[in-house]
Design goal:
- Among the domains are: 118 residues, no CATH class; 109 residues, no CATH class; 134 residues, no CATH class.
- Helices cover 16% and strands 36% of the residues.
- The protein is built from 9 helices and 32 strands.
- The strands form 5 sheets. The protein has an 11-stranded antiparallel β-sheet, with no helix packed on it. Strands 17-18-13-20-21-24-25-28-29 form a 9-stranded antiparallel β-sheet, with helices on one face.
- Strand 28 and strand 29 form a beta hairpin.
- Helix 5 packs across helix 6.
- The radius of gyration is 29 Å and the shape is elongated.
- The termini are far apart.
Length: 576
């Protein structure tokens, strides 16, 4: 029999006091000096590699982890990445073709034909041109996405000519070129953007660790610039615990084939950093973010099965699962990725989306600012793509206040079943042009800078049944400070060219080429494409010229131009 000891009230009281003191000590120590110190974003360590390697993007070294890998997918850049680096425009590489666009969205994007004979409807052709132009700056998103798909087995390297991704060649490999280009273009589609995972740096780190441990497909990690511009896409594949709340996310950076690189995360600062190239002392080369301004996004490394819902088709297009595309008007400024103007969009109530005093604002309800992931070098910083609600009429200011040298740019406005474009916008530092665009794509008015004559090409295109049309009006020379208004009157089948906002000129107008316009009409039918073209049409200031296009077919190659000026109307037959 075991002896027992009875405790009286005093004994129990002393025991409770000792326990309370012990608990207080634990609580105080948890709130006191043993806590990890809180750090700021400035304290995030920049991770460098050894054995420097040169590439067109710069010089970096392979990062060698020294801590424990707490999550590891098994991917390794030398064996599972591509042997070629991120690339831009090239004579030996083809990006999107009409057949590739059809492969993404299905046959509805073809006005006639299919595959190699597909003639794209006007908004699809505009979208293809915008995406191809954006890929001049690089294909990092497409390469990161494709690397994930190869590693996960969704793509088989044997189908592209080699037993492993590390042995694939880009030159002479149209199938691989097409796959990477399609992957790059997917980042701008609402169906893909909606699946992106935002979050603070700590959120992103937690998600990566959990998903890697669960054996999920590799993600694409979007690293955005701190100034609100575009960024770079990499493939994360392992996480190193470096101690004291610091972590390294090991990534395949397609700017540097075969090299292990690392994105530095600091839990105590809820922040991250990544040096784009060789000089961490240059703040322009450092990507980073903290807290709600994380400048990070995770994209699933998989693509939808079947066709993708089409955001620029006329509303009847559906994806493979019957889901309909969320539809917007897309506004894209295309030109030099390192030296370009900025865009400011204003709706009818004065709300703005775009650049104001060097920073991006978004005041228009429902509007989105899509920051592109394509950079090959830190110098490249493409203008974002802007999405505004469909059918919303807007003013678009193209402002060249910050450019370093003169530029020539193109503005595209792509909506459900329509496209508007102004090509050949020539700007010098400090100049501006403004466009007034109808939400349904039926009108664009171009107002030129007072100090600069322009020679723009204005396009309006429509998807219709059974035929679609693409119209082009090329001004030989448009005086500075003038407004050229081009409208499409679909019920009357007329294209109106309104020069009442163009300043008048002297008697040398005809000889100098002023007020001359080249007119082109493309009619896209299920049987093929017919083209009407008539150069050098004289349309003086103060005129409304109406081109009757409804009679244009294979047998009728002459279109009437109704010219209204000074209270008189004349008809001029134009032979195409």
């Amino acid at each position: 029999m075991r002896a027992t000891t009875r405790s009286g009230p005093a004994t129990r009281t002393r025991s409770l006091m000792r326990a309370a003191v012990g608990l207080a000590a634990i609580v105080l120590s948890g709130c006191g000096g043993t806590d990890p110190p809180k750090r700021s974003a400035a304290d995030v360590q920049v991770l460098h590699g050894t054995t420097p390697q040169d590439a067109s993007a710069g010089r970096v070294g392979t990062y060698v982890p020294t801590g424990k890998l707490i999550a590891d997918t098994g991917f390794r850049p030398p064996a599972d990445g591509f042997p070629f680096e991120n690339y831009g425009i090239s004579d030996v590489v083809r990006d999107l073709t009409p057949a590739a666009v059809e492969g993404l969205f299905g046959p509805e994007v073809c006005a006639s034909g299919s595959g190699a004979t597909c003639a794209l409807i006007p908004p699809a052709r505009a979208w293809m041109e915008v995406e191809n132009d954006a890929m001049r700056a690089g294909h990092c998103f497409g390469m990161a996405l494709s690397a994930s798909r190869f590693y996960g087995g969704a793509l088989r390297p044997e189908g592209f000519g080699a037993p492993s991704p590390a042995q694939l060649t880009l030159t002479g490999n149209p199938a691989l070129q097409r796959t990477i280009a399609q992957g790059s273009a997917l980042q701008d589609l609402p169906a893909i953007r909606s699946k992106a995972i935002p979050g603070t740096p700590n959120d992103i780190l937690d998600t990566l660790i959990a998903e890697m441990k669960a054996g999920k497909p590799l993600y694409v990690l979007g690293l955005y610039r701190q100034d609100g511009g575009g960024g770079h896409a990499v493939t994360p594949y392992a996480v190193e615990d470096r101690g004291d709340g610091r972590f390294a996310v090991l990534v395949y950076d397609n700017n540097y084939p075969g090299v292990t690189r690392a994105v530095s995360f600091d839990r105590h600062a809820d922040a991250w950093k990544f040096v784009a190239q060789s000089n961490p002392g240059d703040p322009r080369q450092t990507y980073g973010g903290h807290g709600a301004q994380s400048n990070l996004a995770l994209y699933p490394g998989v693509t939808p099965k079947g066709v993708v819902p089409c955001p620029f088709c006329n509303g009847s297009n559906r994806g493979a699962r019957g889901d309909r595309a969320e539809q917007f008007n897309e506004i894209a400024l295309e030109g030099d990725a390192t030296n370009h103007a900025h865009v400011l969009i204003t709706d009818t109530r004065g709300r703005r989306t775009g650049y104001v005093n060097g920073k991006v604002v978004n005041e228009i309800p429902g509007a989105q600012v899509l920051r592109r992931l394509n950079n090959r070098t830190w110098e490249e910083n493409s203008e974002p793509v802007y999405l505004v609600p469909a059918d919303a009429s807007v003013d678009v200011l193209v402002d060249a206040d910050g450019i370093r040298k003169p530029v020539v740019e193109r503005l595209e406005f792509i909506g459900p079943g329509d496209r508007v474009a102004v090509e050949g916008i020539a700007l010098r530092r400090g100049e501006q042009v403004e466009l007034h665009v109808a939400g349904d794509g039926s009108r664009v008015a171009l107002e030129t800078d007072p100090d600069h004559d322009e020679s723009p090409l204005v396009r309006i295109g429509i998807e219709d049944a059974p035929d679609s049309y693409d119209f082009a009006v090329k001004a030989t020379r448009l005086p500075g400070g003038g407004t050229l208004d081009v409208r499409l009157d679909r019920p009357r089948a007329q294209l109106d060219i309104d020069t009442r906002g163009v300043p008048p000129h002297g008697p040398a107008t005809a000889r100098s080429g002023l007020d001359r316009y080249d007119l082109t009409v493309e009619r896209l039918t299920p049987r093929g494409t017919m083209t009407f073209s008539h150069p050098g049409v004289l349309i003086p200031p103060g005129t409304i010229a109406r081109l009757d296009y409804g009679t244009f077919d294979e047998r009728h190659r002459t279109l009437d131009l109704q010219v209204e000026r000074g209270g008189r109307t004349t008809i001029e037959p134009l032979r195409g």
